[in-house]
Design a protein that fits this description.
Number of helices: 7
Number of strands: 12
Order of helices and strands: EHEHHHEEEEEHEHEEEEH
CATH class: Alpha Beta
Strand order of the largest sheet: 5-4-3-2-1-12
Strand content: 15-25%
Helix content: 25-40%
């Protein structure tokens, strides 16, 4: 297999204008395609913008705001896969024969979910992941949490997703590893990146997975990045598994290439995750 090229979109959609954000996404996908990307990874909530109604900022019990017009409109405007702007993205993926991880608030059973969709080269949604670890200390408490970490096959590679705050919980990447993930795609929208980059480096190492993260640019943000699982040579010498870390402020598309065969060979010969002592993990389901 040739090296697998991922386009990391470091761009912010500040306003919840789905039509304009879709136009921006289309332009960026077209640019990534011209540059030979196999897949385009967008930051968190790109189509809808990562923003909630002002009423959510008060952090009142949901029963006190769920009938407020702003909150109702937010729920009503959440995306579905049949919505026209979403269909434009899937149609473009099929036209350009490129993979896309597009993001936004999606309709849940009652309230929105924070979702990433992985679209294949034929324009089919082959993975839908809704953020499990919502930021319940803030307005994300009003979102419906996802309840699983699915994986899928794309170009013969096993892929999974986690979103932003999922990174802070090692169970997220471990669950994906146990399901066979070789690469984890990580839409993000947050600051305070230095410790978060270290977390991603460790998640890649301890689970023997590649990780790619896309984050909007801003002071303390940006730093879209990629990490390799490989931290030792065949001779046992240590390696820095940082493949790439972008600038904080640059608004651009970065490109990284994963050597899948090299990753598979490394996973075959190394031992992280292979000798788990599950009988001792008595509190992991608590």
């Amino acid at each position: 297999m040739k090296k697998w090229k991922v386009a990391l979109v470091q761009y912010d959609t500040i306003m919840p204008d789905v039509e304009q954000n879709t136009k921006t996404a289309i332009r960026l996908i077209q640019e990534a395609s011209k540059n030979g990307a196999d897949l385009v990874l967008f930051p968190e909530c790109f189509l809808t913008a990562y923003a909630a109604p002002d009423i959510c900022e008060k952090l009142l019990p949901v029963q006190e705001i769920e009938h407020h017009p702003e909150f109702l409109a937010w729920c009503e405007n959440a995306l579905t896969e049949e919505e026209e702007h979403f269909v434009q993205i899937t149609a473009l993926a099929a036209e350009l024969k490129i993979g896309v991880v597009i993001t936004g608030f999606s309709k849940g059973k009652q309230y929105p979910q924070n979702t990433a969709w992985l679209i294949d080269r034929d324009g089919r949604v082959i993975l839908k992941y809704s953020k499990v670890h919502t930021c319940d200390f803030d307005w994300e408490r009003y979102l419906e949490s996802g309840d699983s970490f699915p994986v899928c096959q794309f170009d013969g590679i096993t892929l999974g997703c986690m979103i932003c705050y999922d990174r802070e919980y090692p169970e997220s990447a471990r669950e994906l590893m146990l399901k066979g993930a070789e690469l984890i795609l990580h839409p993000n929208s947050c600051g305070g990146m230095p410790p978060r980059l270290r977390e991603l480096s460790v998640r890649a190492m301890e689970n023997m997975v590649g990780i790619a993260m896309a984050n909007p640019p801003a002071k303390g943000m940006g730093n879209s990045c990629a990490f390799s699982p490989m931290v030792w040579t065949k001779e046992g010498e240590s390696l820095d598994n940082t493949m790439f870390v972008g600038d904080e402020l640059e608004e651009t598309i970065y490109y990284v290439e994963f050597d899948i065969e090299e990753i598979r060979a490394y996973r075959e010969r190394e031992d992280l995750g292979k000798y788990r002592k599950t009988k001792a993990y008595k509190n992991l389901n608590r």
